[in-house]
Amino acid sequence: DADVTQTPRNRITKTGKRIMLECSQTKGHDRMYWYRQDPGLGLRLIYYSFDVKDINKGEISDGYSVSRQAQAKFSLSLESAIPNQTALYFCATSDASGSSYNEQFFGPGTRLTVL
Amino acid sequence: KQEVTQIPAALSVPEGENLVLNCSFTDSAIYNLQWFRQDPGKGLTSLLLIQSSQREQTSGRLNASLDKSSGRSTLYIAASQPGDSATYLCAVNGVTGFQKLVFGTGTRLLVSP
Predict the structure, then answer these.
(1) What SS3 state is found at A99?
(2) Which residues of chain A have a CB within 8 Å of the CB of B45?
(3) Predicted pLDDT at B94
């Protein structure tokens, strides 16, 4: 089984709809991240969380919100989807312990299309 | 603000060639650097992580080097194979504040049989 899973893998929605992307991990890591990937722009950080009680904005958080329901679960919500949020979304995890050097591990991604 | 650049953006080689992918970054104050592989429509697979105190890391046919002072890293792939075809991403982990990854836009590699 994959260590970092994302659901759904593909989603098509309409402008104005609320949508939630979910991420689960079995790696036991405390840190979790949400990125989006756009052609020519690379991956950009949306939100990150050090633990269940810690949520922080990344460089492109406008239009998004997150929830850390448990150490293993981190959800990304688009309250009112717009077409320029069409992208590939990735969840990642890392371990803050010194021996892991904060190496990040990624899920398979969710391809979101907003019409 | 850290910026990461990868050159070339695309590379096509025949099978068996040794090749080098380049990554440069503007702020040398890094914690570590990761190289990832991304297959079309798939997630990112971590290939190598180099700590700021290290000069290189090796895994099989892959060798990554780091010259922090000049802001450069290279990924060397020996005896390339068609299965190596993918996009290779470089990402830098900063030392100040939250250690977040800053990604380059990648090099798309095609290895022809």
Answers:
(1) helix
(2) 106
(3) 81
